[in-house]
Amino acid sequence: MSLWTNGWARHLTKQNLILAFIVLAAFIVRIWSLEMKPPHFDEGINGHFVMQMWKDGFYRYDPTNFHGPLYFYFLQMSEVIFGRGIFGFRFVTLLFSVGTVLVVGLHKRFFGNAALWAAAMLAFGPASVFYARYAIHEWLFILLQVIFVYGFYLYREEKSRLAVTCMVAGFLGTFAVKETFFVFFGTWLIAIYVERFTNRLWPADKPVASSQKLSRKERKALEKEQVVSTSAPLDPARKADFFAITAIGVMIVLALFSGFFVHMEGILDMFRAFMFWTKTGTAASGHEKPFVYWIELLWRYEWPGLLALALSPIIYFNVSRPARVMVVTSFGTWLAYSLSPYKTPWLILNILWPLAFTLGFAVEVAKKFAEKFAIKPLAAAMQIVILFTLATAAQIMLRLNFVDFVNPKEAYVYVQSTMQFKNAMDWINARVKQRPEDLNMKLLVLNKDTWPMPWLLGGFPNLNWGKPEDADLTNASVILIDASMRETLEKRLTGKYWVQPFHIRDAYDEGWAYFEFHQFQGILPSNSPIFDSATKKEGGQG
Length: 542
Description:
Blueprint: H1 2-6, H2 14-31, H3 41-56, H4 70-82, H5 86-106, H6 108-111, H7 113-124, H8 126-130, H9 138-158, H10 161-175, H11 181-201, H12 216-228, H13 239-257, H14 265-282, H15 293-301, H16 303-316, H17 321-339, H18 348-372, H19 377-402, H20 419-434, E1 443-445, H21 453-456, E2 463-465, E3 478-482, H22 486-492, E4 496-501, E5 511-516, E6 530-532, E7 537-538
């Protein structure tokens, strides 16, 4: 019985069960029909880099790419486990997203139930789920930020090796993912000094002890556990530990950037990247948005985040000093990303996760006001308001991820491939699945802009690129072109082909896909239009 008390039983608290439910639900909504969304432009580019890694044997870091090597090695690992395809890439990203929800929830050690509210906001938020179902860098980047924050607060409590490891891994890890790591760490540093300055003028509340945040039943269980527990506290980190952990982290980063010391120039490029990024972050790039862009997205999709941002000033002066640092970070991150003209919608994830904590603090502040002014319904009212905003966001999340995931009218649907594009790729893969030898079929990609096809079709040995006016069309099984070049192609094309519209993405030209008639009979819809060179016209059905 004592073994059980000292083991799993002591973890079955109400908070842990709630967190487990939140994490499980977050995993389910992210993995459900994970492949239903067409491959994104950036997913194709990331996949292309992984292809190059297999050829070179390492990631050749390019400072103009604005992304470090760490995420690409995780993607390569996913291909080892799952094989080539979009599922493995997205599954890795999904795990980073769910891991972030878990680590945010583990901050209950420092912030009590506020961390659970924060975890719930990230678990079911529209952007949180939408971009967790993409193979892009952002979630690994944010997970490492959250790990750093956990280590920071843990170090304030116990100064253990675990705390130091979390801080070092978080800092160096973000450095190895994206060059914009300094936006978060700069904001975090400023938040610390803002909190110190304001605390002299408006002293903060003292943090509530962990045992005080528990129910009476949970406190009794904790007291019983402390009586029977024989585990020793963690030893504090020594100077040697700091040096060893940091040295190991730096060596790992240097190895990543240098292709494990094969491409030493990558270490210099690691610093050159900041010059390129400074130009990109301020000069015209095609991704410029107005200052109010994030407010517009919050209003349209993320009501819990908007509520947290609006309540930030009130919350700040009514929480503990550790919580104040987080509130300033949430506001400062929003301000920093608003001031930069370079804005892509997935960057909102960097704003949402600290705002999630601010939202959780709002519940605690409402409880405080309820006790102070003897307004008992106030705390319940705040919880109802937050639950309403979370439910609204969850409803938007379900519609966005499972209904309107390619709708160009949705702001989060950005540089997104169309279902026409996905259908064409699925038909090609279906043929290969039926007849594996058709992996050697001749594919002609004659579009001006080809992404994400270099990765999706890169496994076909007879993949050819060119222009409709001079491409070798002989024995072509699949031909992909822009609509403007259709007439030029058909003047030269011989044989019989199924024809389907092929719009790569909303911001790009319309196009057409040609599939050799006999080879793809039974795969394409039987009512598809047909081009027959014998009649030099399109018409009829199969």
